[in-house]
Amino acid sequence: MSWLTAVTIVTCVTFLQSLADRAPVVSTNVGQVQGETDTFSSKFLQGSGDVYSYRGIPFAKPPINERRFRPAEAMDPWEGVINATEIPPSCPQIYQPFYKHLYGTNNFSEDCLYLNVFAPRDASPNAAVMVFIHGGSFVLGSGSDFPYNPLPLVFLGDVILVTINYRLNIFGFFSTGDDAIPANLGLTDQRLALKWVNENIEAFGGNPQKVTVFGESAGSACISWHLLSEESGQYFQRVILQSGPPYAIWATVLTPEQSRDIAFLAADIGGCTPSVPGDTSGLADCFRKNLTVEELLEIHSKVDELFLLGPTVWIATNDGEFFTDDVNTLIEEGAYSNIDILLGTNKDEGTFCTYLVTGLPEERPFVSKDFLTFITTGFNDPLVSDLLEAVYASGIDQEDNYVGALEDALVTSPSNVDVLIG
C-alpha cells in the first residue's frame, strides 16, 4: 500500500467519524442549528446509546447595551447553520465556594440567553419534553450546570430535555418598581425560553403538548410563579417542584415599593444617585450606560451584605403584569394553571441551606442559646417556642438539630403548606 493511499484511507475514516459525531441539522423557526452526538453507556443502569446534543442555541437577542435591564426580545432569523456544540456562557454571577465544588465554574457574559437541547437518537415519535430551570438562590447557576448527567435521563427516559439560562441577581431580579427597569426580567427570560420550546421542540422530535417543567430550589420557586401566570401556563402541561415552594421565607415576593427602595440603595452604592430625587428614569439610564458588568456585580454583593438572607434581595416583584394580583392572594384563590403538579423535597437538604444563611454562629458545637434564639424568632406563641425547643434543641447532637431546623423552616414545612392549600 502506498503512502498516499494510506493517507487517503485515514483521511476518509476520520471524515466519516466526524460525520458520525455530528447530530442532524435542525431547522428552527429562526434558523438552522448543528449539534453533536454524545454516547451514553452505563453498566449500573444497564443501558447504552447515542444522544443528539445541541448546546448554546440562542433564544433571545443579547440583553446588552440598551437592552440591559429590559425584557428579553426573541431572536431575529439568521442565515446559515449555527454550530451548537459549545457550552454557552453563564449569565453574570459571583461564584460561591460551595458552587465551585459542586459544578466548577463557567465563563460568564451578559450575552447569555441560550438553551441546550438533548434528544435520544432513536426517540419515540412525539416524545415527551422536560424543561429544567436551574436553582441557585436566584443569583447563580446555569442551564449547562444541570446537577445530574443529562444523558441517562434523556436516553433511558426517552424524553427530550431542554436546559435554559436566564438572567440572575441584579441583572435579572432588579427593578425600580416601575417601567424604568421592569420587574421579573429573569422570569420573563424563562417564559421566552418556554415559548421557544413550544414553537420549536417538534423539530427535535418532541411533543409541545407534552411538556413538563421541573427545577430545584430557586428554579422550583420560579416554576411555582409561572403557575400563577396565564401567559406562562400555556407553554407546559405538568410541573415538578423540587425543594422550592412558593411559601418558603426565601421566596417571599417583593412589593414594588420594596423593589424601588432597593434600587435607590443600589444606586447610592454604585454612584448612580439621580440628580432629581426619585427619578427612576435617570437611575435606569446610569445603570444601563455607566456601569460595567463587574461594577454591577460589586453592587449586588454590597447590597447582599446589608441583609440577613442576602440572596433573596434579588427576587420576584408583585408588578401587576407578570403577577396580575398579589401572589399570596393568587395562591389562596387557587389561581394555579390547571395542570399536574408533583411536589417534594430532598433528604438532609438543611446541610446545603447552612451555606446560604449568613450572620449565624459558625463555631461547633453550636451555642444552645443562640440556636434557640434563631429557631424561635418570629413565633409569639410560647407553646410554639416550647415545641420547637423540644424538637430541635433536645439531645446532644446540636449540629444535626440545627441542620434539621433549617431544612424544615426553609424547605419542608413550606412545601407541606403548599400541599394543604393546593
UniProtKB/TrEMBL annotation:
InterPro entries: AB_hydrolase_fold (IPR029058), AChE-related_enzymes (IPR050654), CarbesteraseB (IPR002018), Carboxylesterase_B_AS (IPR019826), Carboxylesterase_B_CS (IPR019819). Its EC number is 3.1.1.-. It holds the Pfam family COesterase. Coiled coil: none annotated. Belongs to the type-B carboxylesterase/lipase family. Keywords: Hydrolase, Serine esterase, Signal. Residues 1-20 form the signal peptide. GO terms for molecular function: acetylcholinesterase activity. This is Carboxylic ester hydrolase. Residues 23-358 form the Carboxylesterase type B domain. GO terms for cellular component: extracellular space; plasma membrane. It comes from Stichopus japonicus. It is an enzyme of class 3 (hydrolase). GO terms for biological process: acetylcholine catabolic process; choline metabolic process.
